[in-house]
Amino acid sequence: MTGASTATPTTVVERLALTDFRSYPSLAVEFPLGTQVVVGPNAAGKTNLLEALVVLGTGRSHRTTTDSEMVNWSADFCRLEVALGDSGADRRSTVEVVIGRTPAISRKRAKVNGVARRPATLSGTLPVVVFAPEDMLLLVGGPTLRRQAVDALVEQLEPAAGATFSTYARGLTQRNNLLRALREGTAERTELAYWDGLVCEEGGLIVEWRQRALAELAGPLARTHDEIAGEGPLSLSYISNAEPLPTESTQAALRRRLAETADKELWNGATLVGPHRDDIGFELDGRQMAGAASRGQQRSAILAFKLAQLELLTVLRGRPPLLLLDDVFSELDPQRRGQLVRRLAALPQAFVTTTTVDDLHPSLVAAATVWTVADGRIERLAAATR
């Protein structure tokens, strides 16, 4: 196994600095090219390190929807900063995110190269693909997991998606509050008009983006799964609760379904129609995998899903995204571990966490830069001591 090549354009993490982010009171570390293997016991801070990169790449955490949870318990705010190298343009860039949890610093702020940006628009500066243990539940878990997985890809493909997701979530909360007020007789039905429009317009965009992302992922997914499992084909289907009629747009279908469910929504005090209620189906040879696939088939499908995203983003951007693997090697058998090792060897940089290097292929460990994490510190491990 050889080191990563820099012949093609690459964007890599050169330096990461954290202040009062979760278990890291103060951290500043420089990373070389190639695979970075981060070793440590559970709760040592390995996942926190990857989460910081996700926040800097996407503007939000993949682990929590409550930003204040990321601030060290002893601090009022945290700061994350990454310096990126771009061999394709021979330039450097920085991304900074500050998260507060006090009245004085209560919101998330972001900067790219010193210029203020909305956190929801960060996606694209540092594109990332994350593979975490909870992804192993993708097929058998609830639809929220599958929606989040596809939405993470959408945000990488559509520059406006992050802001639209945030607008939709806030609007959905307001509409649900209004529905409960209507049920209690403290509001008028006419007040729903604005929020109905938001669900239809913003929600329609989200549905269309998701469907477009699945269409673009179809080819890489089928190829990757065939390589991993040798069976299939594997495909993804979008399961909507507002399927358009032949002459309807996505937005018109949502408006029709809102009218059809109006009385039921009032009874429940919740919005029953929209992309927040949709699902994504994994289909093997045309049959839904949920409840029928073996554990081996599930793992092949999930691994193919992640690697297909890596392939798609590489083709569309002309450079690979940063692959973050959070303690997933222990979940895979030797054949599937081998697939990951081969992909890692071709990437300019990737981050892998593990509780023990015994879960990794010796060739991967030999070629990687190995770090140990403990007590809010990270230290590089000399090759002779591995």
3D architecture notes:
The protein has 386 residues and is of the alpha/beta class. The longest helix has 38 residues, at 192-229. Strand 14 (369-374) and strand 15 (377-380) form a beta hairpin. A six-stranded antiparallel sheet has the order 2-1-4-5-6-7, with helices on one face. Residues 1-6 have low confidence and may be disordered. The protein is built from nine helices and 15 strands.
Which characteristics define this entry?
single chain
Give the terminus-to-terminus CA distance.
17 Å
Give the number of helices: 9
Strand percent estimate = 15-25%
Low-confidence stretches: 1-6
Average pLDDT value? 91
In order across it, which strands form the biggest sheet? 2-1-4-5-6-7
Question: Topology, pairings included?
Answer:
Blueprint: E1 11-21, E2 24-30, E3 34-39, H1 46-58, E4 77-86, E5 91-100, E6 109-112, E7 115-117, E8 128-131, H2 143-157, H3 161-183, H4 192-229, E9 234-239, H5 250-260, H6 262-268, E10 279-284, E11 287-288, H7 295-317, E12 322-326, H8 334-345, E13 349-354, H9 362-367, E14 369-374, E15 377-380
Parallel strand pairs: 3-13, 3-14, 8-12, 12-13
Antiparallel strand pairs: 1-2, 1-4, 4-5, 5-6, 6-7, 9-10, 10-11, 14-15
